[in-house]
Request: fold
Amino acid sequence: MTDIAWLYQNGQGVAQDHAEAMKWFQKAAATGFTPGMITFGGFYGNGSGGRGGSVVTQDSAEARRWYQSRGSPQTQQA
Reply:
C-alpha cells in the first residue's frame, strides 16, 4: 500500500495527488505497517500532505498517536 501511496505522493506514473497518497498511507497505517504509521503521523506532525501539498492541519496529538502506536502488540501482526 505504501508503494501506491508514494506513486501518488511523487506523481510517478499517475497524476500527483497528495490527498490520494494520504488515503493509501492511512490504509497502510491502519494495518499496523510501521512505515505507513510513521509517514501518516508525519502528515499530522507537519500539517501537510507531504511535499508541497497541504491536506491536513497540523495536529501534534494525532501525530503522536500514530508515532506511539507503532510497535505496539496489536500492530505486530500486520
About this structure: Residues 18-30 form the longest helix (13 residues).
